[in-house]
């Protein structure tokens, strides 16, 4: 039953988001995030369960990042930060989630937190994967360092 509710809320959120109905999308994405409380069938490792869990984690990551983005757009930075933080915990290597978290810090007037977060994430990417952060992350870090606002806002 919970799975059906999550999928229905996610479909509604995506449709509203695609149509540009931000408030409706925010409400539906919030519902997805509230309903998604843990791994699907935790403790089971059948192939079909693992695949379904991956799909649901992907939906949740999309819901968290879209919700954080839309909330940033409406300048609700504190709530956006909560969802961006959850996204970075769900997918620690997802650069978009970290970009959103840095945007929240900047929106909250914490440029030093942007720099600290960037440095930690950059170190993680190099150690774990051997690659650099994307251009958007670097640009936002430079903007924060020079006291410039986020150009996406």
Features:
7 helices, 0% strand, 153 residues
Characterise the protein shown here:
- It is built from seven helices and no strands.
- The chain has helices at residues 2-18, 22-35, 47-73, 77-90, 95-107, 111-129, 135-145.
- The model has no long low-confidence stretch (mean pLDDT 95).
Could you tell me the radius of gyration in angstroms?
16 Å
**What's the helical proportion of residues?**
over 70%
Secondary structure tally, helices: 7
Strand content: under 5%
Compressed to H and E, one letter per element, the order equals: HHHHHHH
Find the structural class using helix and strand composition.
mainly alpha
The largest β sheet comes out as: none
Q: What is the typical, i.e. mean, pLDDT? A: 95
The first-to-last residue Cα distance is 38 Å
Counted beta strands: 0
- What is the approximate shape? globular
Report low-confidence residues grouped into runs of 5 or more. Answer: none
Q: In summary, what is this structure?
A:
With 153 residues, the protein is mainly alpha-helical. The chain contains 7 helices and no strands.
